[in-house]
Amino acid sequence: MTVDELQKETPKPAKLGFVGWLRWFWRTLTSMKTALVLLFLFALASIPGSLVPQRSVEPDKVALIYQNDPALAEWYDRFYLFDVFTAPWFAAIYLLLFVSLIGCVLPRTGTYLKELRRKPPTAPKNLSRLPYHARAEGELDVEEAARRLRKLRFRVATGPGWVSAEKGYLRETGNLLFHVALLGLLVAVGMGSLFGYRGNVLVVEGDGFANTVAAYDRYMPGSRVSAESLEPFSFTLKDFQASYQLGGDKRGQELDYTAKLSVNDSPQSPARDYDLKVNEPLEIDGTQTYLIGHGYAPVFRVTDGKGQIAFDGPVPCLIESKPTLTSGCVVKVPDAQPEQLGFLLQFLPTSVQLTDGSHVSAFPGQLNPQAKIVGAFSGDLGVRSGKPQSVYQLAPDDVMKKLKPLAMGSKAPPPLAVGQSFDLPEKLGKIEFTGVKEWMTLQIAHDPGRMPALLASALATVALVMSLMIRRRRVFVRITDGAVDVGGLTRTEGSGTGFGEEFADIVKALSAGEKDVR
């Protein structure tokens, strides 16, 4: 036979085709190995959410990154690192894991139900070959051995001269419940994404907040949430109190801070006082308000060149140094005449002068508050150009180049104490430091999946304990010519430790008299 004839007679492997590839993909996706890989990727994908500030939790830190390193912030935003848990790549892992778990759970459920209905197998003929073997003392028949094993909570099957018993079915129950709990946890997260909402807002002492979409600094609704879904509550920040460690190695460390609120649960309800603290949220009809941060909002009054008050109010400042709460402030005065004015300032809660003449803050509390003018500028700030600008940035780089510096570097005045002012050159006006207020940042969240997620997590913990602690084991008894042979083995790999003692107790129970059997 020639080579060509042999090649013609040799059957070619069949192609998978479209349906075949679909089956292969489904088997691969729903395998236990794939589920474990996806679970690992799910945990790995959550790490950036802990390392990089998230817009939903720390919007002030996100703004600070944009201010200090705009290029890095742009790359972070391009890969959704400021919004990890709403990123498309995170959602892809989430959905694949969800489908994979369903594919794992459904066939295992069917197999488990069949296993529950199956009787223990016939006892082997030679029990001495099993890992555990012993001979029970005394006379015993098949019915009595079966009865004693049932009292030990074994499932029993009998035959001519033998008894087969099995125990530990709850191990697979725990394994199955663990996967079901993971599915429940994913469903709960999905419920929160669809029917919940989150938002961030910064509130200064003396100001209020009403739970409407327009009042949020950042609002992230679920796809099934409308503006009418928001609970109609409101509150006013009456006072913010913070305490710090005064001495020792941890000097300046925050001990506690409290926001004193006046809350209206609805437009018709009377006001009530509430002390909002970290990990003690305000909850109204399933909506939680969390205190997540605070800082200073020094109050400035700016008089323009025509003697008119062009700006008067608190300015929330971004924290530049957490240990001392040194903060950077931006004041924009687009209504000043004859020219618009802008100020870059640094707020020092406890200002001290160093030997070189510079001023820094030595403590986060307000022991000697001062405001240092880093730069004062005049010119068009670009706020009326139609392009959005950050409130924490005086102007974009192209606009900053066109502004006229009025006081910078050596021309800047000494830090201003409360009540002091600085007259701008060329009679363009003055800026006065009139007081200090504090601000707080809040996260307001409504998550209908919060309680289901808690229950699913608790179920997963219990199920994991069951699958780890419970052993699947079998016991066989053969009665031949009055001799009672007992054999045992565990069906779970690596779980034989500890079964020796239990097997000895089983043999003792089979050997015991009627009064000793429990």
Automatic annotation (TrEMBL):
The signal peptide stretch is none
On the tree of life, the source organism's domain of life is Bacteria
Main location, first listed in the record: membrane
Q: What is the lineage of its organism?
A: Bacteria, Bacillati, Actinomycetota, Actinomycetes, Streptosporangiales
User: Its topology with respect to the membrane?
Assistant: Multi-pass membrane protein
Task: State one Pfam family annotation.
Answer: ResB
Localization (cell): Membrane
The species is Nonomuraea roseola
Quote the protein name from its UniProt record.
Answer: Cytochrome c biogenesis protein ResB
